[in-house]
């Protein structure tokens, strides 16, 4: 009997959510007609190939052996995230880089013990929370200067520890996944109101480490905006910032940990700003003749000081594919929420501005059909994606941000570069765009790529398209990531984007808190040890 490897590469529960061949067979013609792309017979995931020998477990001190696992499925599951290249490699059962062991600490004392022993034994440590990285953040793609590599799984350190109702803040352990966070805050009639698309699996520690962004489009976009203080264990000791509503005392110790991707310390807890649950909601769907016209309306909303919770501008093709709007127009899904303040005036003003900018209001008031179609497609996306991959569709996303003055040219240049590469490499394919987050001075365009994959060559295909898209993003003035983080995959472009003195400062900071350099070598703060493009 073949053991399912779904736990290694899948999104859902291994016992119920793995796509079945018969369902995929039925889905195939629908996908082909809907996307206008050829599909292939459903791929049968391969069993896990033999893993390289475990170099660590036999050397572990007894105290750490108690929290260690070297089961092959465990090692494999902790060696990839959930990017397209991760899923393809996972379902083929072939992973070139695998952690030697998985360590599951239950408290900070054990985290400290792991860091101490690994520093002495020259073993790299990769913090792991939800494993939803899409940038190679948890993959042990390292130089051979290490005598081993362990995955430090924070899953046992989870839950809301205390709630300060007066300050509306909650102390949360790093391994807390989104659903548990909301369930435990609900008992206090509070919410963190932070919903990345990976909400189901990703965790507070992962959000802090990657500077994740939630689903809401304005105001509190990144986790940075919710973080009041952070506590992390570093090889040089505990790094805990003070709980403060704001502080001008020098460079911020919180900010330095935010986005450090496990290279400076292991985040164990954070105080997050929380709020009452919303009591009033308003939603609208509007149509724009083009993405550019829609973007002008969005800019007008931002410049008017309106801060809609939802403000997703979706280009015509993506609107059709997601079932949001089938008219060949771009769709704008707008929403306001409040837990007290009236929103009638805000929503009326938003509609007025949109109409002034040439948009048609299709539905407004309660959540309508188009907005619901988009939301349901958003929530189902991780599951849909793995079905498409099993049917031989190359599907992946990349995201960035740019100021309004360069917006139209930027979106055109990046779309053209990615489309050219896609046609060259795959012979066909589509690149669609939506705005995930909007600001008074710019927006975050998010691109979805779909193309016929050539089985066996998917990684090379995607790497070429991704490199062309990333080159275009940087040369047109954007950032290599707005919220997906740097990881290993973005490192070459990040190296070009950041100022050289800043890179030197970051590398020096790493040397100070992690003298042996064991913490997640190759990601953001690693300086000279960074590896190149994905191998
Ligand atoms: C389908 C899908 C949808 C996504 N949607 C979004 C989205 O809407 N918004 C968004 O921002 N991102 C999104 N992502 C990317 C990903 O979910 C985020 O980067 C997320 O923050 C990762 O959290 P995690 O708990 O899974 O961390 P992991 O994947 O386990 O780790 C991510 C990185 O952080 C480090 N790390 C993890 N935990 C710690 C810790 N406690 N201390 C120090 N370092 C740590 C790891 O070493 C790694 O480098 C999506 C990914 C997928 C697959």
Question: In a nutshell, what does this entry contain?
Answer:
By secondary structure, the protein is of the alpha+beta class. It has helices at about 5-10, 20-35, 60-65, 70-75, 85-90, 110-120, 180-185, 205-210, 255, 290-305, 315-320, 345-355, 370-390, 405-425, 460-475, 490-495, 500-515; strands spanning about 70, 100-105, 125-130, 150-155, 160-165, 170-175, 190, 225-235, 235-240, 265-275, 275, 280-290, 310-315, 330-340, 360-365, 395-400, 400-405, 430-440, 440-450. Helix content is about 35%, strand content about 20%.
Provide an overview of this structure.
By secondary structure, this protein is α+β, with helices and mostly antiparallel strands. The strands form four sheets. Strands 12, 13, 14, 15, 16, 17, 18 and 19 form an eight-stranded antiparallel β-sheet that branches. A five-stranded antiparallel β-sheet has the order 5-6-10-8-9. Strands 1-2-4-3 form a four-stranded mixed β-sheet, covered by helices on one side. A hairpin with a 2-residue loop joins strand 18 (430-439) and strand 19 (442-452). Mean pLDDT is 94; it is low at 527-535. The chain is globular and about 70 Å long. The longest helix is centred in the C-terminal third of the chain and has 22 residues, at 369-390. Helix content is 35%, strand content 21%. Flavin-adenine dinucleotide binds next to strand 3, helix 8 and strand 10.
